[in-house]
């Protein structure tokens, strides 16, 4: 029966790719035998995909999405046969790579290696949840299917080193070792002993024949009681059963062709004229997941109902965070670096919300992200990622998808380059992951051009559904956080290393609109707009201009992304159409041409010198801003 179940999965995947005339049939067909057995081990409820104590199944090789959708349809999730037939089509529930809009998809996995790090993140989140709620309440497994490409990407090594360090015994990674990449056999670029690598990282490792049902069953049964994370190396043939294309790299990313599929079906004892076919006995076996899942969840609900009142209250607070309970610090009038004000804000949020958790890529003292008195993972809220920015972002994405956590991650702004793929996936999913990026400009100073972010601000402002905040002082930072917490999207806080003068009588209500009129002139001729440290600079320049009878408005724009969402009427209230607009930013800032007539920005990568000297050298002085404004007029 297992062979029939596996072949059903195999041909559903092949038919989906063939009908779409697009996709990747090889990996799904090679994994079909493993999938048919794995489905017997996964604890989940297709009727309630958000049940907290379900096992998490991550498909790191997102190109194998036809396997994902076959699994979800056969298990009884909200996915129909028509959805399978609509594979890779516009507005379908079955896009080319898994996205969270599809019921049962735990996390979006596109770039290779992300899913491995997501799985580590889910396993860490489960340990954090068990620490809060008890191991009898949270005791599920995290399964991850990955391939050669996932393990060649550096992010997987970053994440798995962390998994081994923390002995995440709830993590099971199944490595589809078919030795094939797009260009051919993996030997053209890889000869690594994966078993030795993972054992060195702290994993227990097994090797199996990925087409032998007894070996698959034994390995998965062994996963139940491990003391370390567990890697199962499954030796498989890509496009298993596909005749002359079995084992060929040509089966990786293109339809097999009608004749090869028909021949494969005949060899397996299936009707070659039937496509998208599932026999009743096979569907009955797979759909038992619904009843079994209902039973498992009912048993868990009974357990939860018997928890103490304190634990019930904690669970409710985790599931329904109350932002009104946050006692934000009063930072009015304080001269602070925004990294310092941000640290105070993080601690205030953490004190109020039990699910607020996070850490830094070995930079907490510089990022000011330590949560005081909160202990370290797995017994507390402070996560230590080591120097692993890319994995950090993907791990925190998984925390955000887990269901009860609000994670933040932190590094220097220049190193956001390392984690951009994770930030982009966070934006695509629309999850609440808060990125803290300090050392925001040439104000980094003596460390020089390699550490001075120039183009990064423009990069993240260009990203859809991602909100980049660059506050000008402590109080504005508080308002930025209040706004970010209300958004169903990731946010970034780009903070200064150097202390900034507080804004006087700022009208912070405008922060939710992305920008607001900070200083209004009686007879304005020019408008200066900036974010972060350059706002104070614009206020000084405005004073010079006003003394020369040049009416000057000043706009603080902590979030360019929110500003772009405002209507023309609001835009005209802050950028008076009768004025010339000069944008001032110690970065490339080209996006400001959307609103500004001219930009005073960076045209190089910076230099190594004390911060004050650099601002002067590159023209970021009050007098030069005033001169540029006069030139514009």
TrEMBL record:
It catalyses: D-sedoheptulose 7-phosphate + D-glyceraldehyde 3-phosphate = aldehydo-D-ribose 5-phosphate + D-xylulose 5-phosphate. GO terms for cellular component: cytosol. The active site is at residue 389. Thiamine diphosphate binds at residues 63, 110-112, 149, 178, 252, 415. InterPro entries: THDP-binding, Transketo_C/PFOR_II, Transketolase-like_C_2, Transketolase-like_Pyr-bd, Transketolase_bac-like, Transketolase_BS, Transketolase_CS, Transketolase_fam. Substrate binds at residues 24, 252, 339, 366, 439, 447, 451, 497. Keywords: Calcium, Magnesium, Metal-binding, Thiamine pyrophosphate, Transferase. Residues 336-503 form the Transketolase-like pyrimidine-binding domain. The record marks 24, 252 as: Important for catalytic activity. Binds 1 Mg(2+) ion per subunit. Can also utilize other divalent metal cations, such as Ca(2+), Mn(2+) and Co(2+). Binds 1 thiamine pyrophosphate per subunit. During the reaction, the substrate forms a covalent intermediate with the cofactor. Mg(2+) binds at residues 148, 178, 180. It holds the Pfam family Transketolase_N. Its cofactor is Mg(2+); Ca(2+); Mn(2+); thiamine diphosphate. Its EC number is 2.2.1.1. One of its GO terms (molecular function) is metal ion binding. One of its GO terms (biological process) is pentose-phosphate shunt. Belongs to the transketolase family. Catalyzes the transfer of a two-carbon ketol group from a ketose donor to an aldose acceptor, via a covalent intermediate with the cofactor thiamine pyrophosphate. Homodimer. This is Transketolase. It comes from Campylobacter iguaniorum.
């Amino acid at each position: 029966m297992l062979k029939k179940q596996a072949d059903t999965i195999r041909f559903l995947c092949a038919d989906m790719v063939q009908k779409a005339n697009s996709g990747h049939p090889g990996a799904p067909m090679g994994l079909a035998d493993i999938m048919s057995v794995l489905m017997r081990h996964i604890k989940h409820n297709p009727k309630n995909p958000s049940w907290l104590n379900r096992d998490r199944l991550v498909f790191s090789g997102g190109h194998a999405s036809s396997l994902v959708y076959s699994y979800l349809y056969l298990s009884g999730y909200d996915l129909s046969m028509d959805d399978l037939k609509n594979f890779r089509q516009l507005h379908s529930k079955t896009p080319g790579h898994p996205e969270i809009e599809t019921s049962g998809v735990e996390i979006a996995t596109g770039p290779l290696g992300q899913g491995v790090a997501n799985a580590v993140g889910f396993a860490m989140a489960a340990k954090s949840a068990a620490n809060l709620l008890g191991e009898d309440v949270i005791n599920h497994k995290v399964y991850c299917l990955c391939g050669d490409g996932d393990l060649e990407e550096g992010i997987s090594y970053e994440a798995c080193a962390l998994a081994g360090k923390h002995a995440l015994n709830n993590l099971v990674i199944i490595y589809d070792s078919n030795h094939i990449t797009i260009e051919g056999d993996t030997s053209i670029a890889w000869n690594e002993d994966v078993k030795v690598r993972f054992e060195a990282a702290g994993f227990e490792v097994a090797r199996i024949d990925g087409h032998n049902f007894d070996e698959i069953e034994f390995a998965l049964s062994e996963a139940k009681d491990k003391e370390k994370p567990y890697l199962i190396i499954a030796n498989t043939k890509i496009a298993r059963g596909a005749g002359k294309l079995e084992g060929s790299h040509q089966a990786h990313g293109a339809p097999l062709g009608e004749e090869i599929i028909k021949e494969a079906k005949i060899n397996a004892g299936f009707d070659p004229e039937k496509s998208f076919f599932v026999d009743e006995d096979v569907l009955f076996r797979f759909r038992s997941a619904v009843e079994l899942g209902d039973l498992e969840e009912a048993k868990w609900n009974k357990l939860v109902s018997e928890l103490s009142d304190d634990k019930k209250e904690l669970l409710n607070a985790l599931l329904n965070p109350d932002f009104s309970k946050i006692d934000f610090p009063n930072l009015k009038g304080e001269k602070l670096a925004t990294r310092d004000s941000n640290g105070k804000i993080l601690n205030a949020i953490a004190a109020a919300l039990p699910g607020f958790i996070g850490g830094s890529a070995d930079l907490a003292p510089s990022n000011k992200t330590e949560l005081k008195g909160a202990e370290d993972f797995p017994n507390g809220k402070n996560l230590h990622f080591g120097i692993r920015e890319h994995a950090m972002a993907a791990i925190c994405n998984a925390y955000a998808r887990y269901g009860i956590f609000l994670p933040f991650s932190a590094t220097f702004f220049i190193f956001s380059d390392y984690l951009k793929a994770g930030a982009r996936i966070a934006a695509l999913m629309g999850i609440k992951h808060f990125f803290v990026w300090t050392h925001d400009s040439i104000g980094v100073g003596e460390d020089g051009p390699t550490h001075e972010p120039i183009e990064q601000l423009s990069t993240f402002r260009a990203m859809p559904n991602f909100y980049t905040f660059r506050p000008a002082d402590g109080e504005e930072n508080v308002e930025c956080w209040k706004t970010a917490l209300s958004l169903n999207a990731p946010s970034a806080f780009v903070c200064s290393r150097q202390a900034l003068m507080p804004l006087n009588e700022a009208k912070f209500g405008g922060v939710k609109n992305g920008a607001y009129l900070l200083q209004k002139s009686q007879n304005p001729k020019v408008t200066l707009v900036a974010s972060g440290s350059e706002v104070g600079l614009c206020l000084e320049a405005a004073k010079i201009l006003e003394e020369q009878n040049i009416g000057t408005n000043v706009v603080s724009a902590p979030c360019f992304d929110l500003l772009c969402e405002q209507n023309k009427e609001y835009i005209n209230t802050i950028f008076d159409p009768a004025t010339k607009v000069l944008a001032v930013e110690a970065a490339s800032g080209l996006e400001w041409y959307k609103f500004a007539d001219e930009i005073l920005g960076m045209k190089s990568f910076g230099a190594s010198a004390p911060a004050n000297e650099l601002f002067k050298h590159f023209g970021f002085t009050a007098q030069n801003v005033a001169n540029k404004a006069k030139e514009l007029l």
